[in-house]
Amino acid sequence: MNLKKIRTALLVLIAAATAAVFLLPLVWMLSTGFKNDFEALAGQMNFIPKKPTFDNFVDGLTGELMNVPITRWIFNSLFAGAAGTALVLWIDSMAAYALARLPDVPLRRVLFPMFVASLMIPGVLTFLPMYLEFNQFGLINTYYALVLPYTAGAFGVFLLYQFFVSFPREIEEAARIDGANKWQVYASVLLPSSVPIMVTLGIFTFMGVYNDFVWPLYATTSPEMRTITAGIAMMAHGSYTQAYGKLMAMTTIAALPVLLVFIFGQRSFVRAITQSGIK
């Protein structure tokens, strides 16, 4: 019994130490955001600012920082994340439904392995062809360039396919006996039952689109069209190279939407699991 308690205590200590390692940069970021530039540049390992100030946050949100439209960047990131997530959930769910439940889809036994195989292709290999394609159609530096690259992905199809293919056929057959067509089975039977999977896919998709850095950096050319990640990177290599307080304040503001989505999405995910059931 004592060995069990010791083992439990060691696991708790390891978990606490691991959590501290991951939380330390976040705490340092938040602390630096409340420091003035002189104190931030001092490089002292103090997590509590000597003279806390909200000026960095206020200046960023009110547009006082010269030629830096922070609020527009946040809007661009939120819009791209929300639109991309909505399209991914819609397109991937329909594709997974067709591959898993519709036997009359041509070559569906060949298409699904191709989807899975595409997961092994590094995204960097498709970066240049995708950029050239968007440039050819004149979509660079538009909202289309910020949204369309994320509108469908093999991961979402693979994730939803595993759920749809294991869904009891008796329920689907009962719906068809009641007069439901293929679209009604998809929209009224399968989708409500897949809420936990959809929430999970939505969380990861939104976080991926919102946090993406490389594509928005090259797909946008004007300051007004940049996302918050690309915008902060430009600030770090521009006029605010040594303005660590302002950079950390903007990074904190940029991290808040993703943090809130993850927290509330996680609650929705747990609630969906506990409350969901096949009636």
UniProtKB/TrEMBL annotation:
The chain crosses the membrane at residues 73-99, 111-131, 143-164, 185-210, 243-264. It is found in: Cell membrane. It is a multi-pass membrane protein. Gene3D superfamilies: MetI-like. The keyword Phosphoprotein does not apply. One of its GO terms (cellular component) is plasma membrane. One of its GO terms (biological process) is transmembrane transport. Residues 74-265 form the ABC transmembrane type-1 domain. Keywords: Cell membrane, Membrane, Transmembrane, Transmembrane helix, Transport. InterPro entries: MetI-like, MetI-like_sf. Belongs to the binding-protein-dependent transport system permease family. This is Carbohydrate ABC transporter permease.
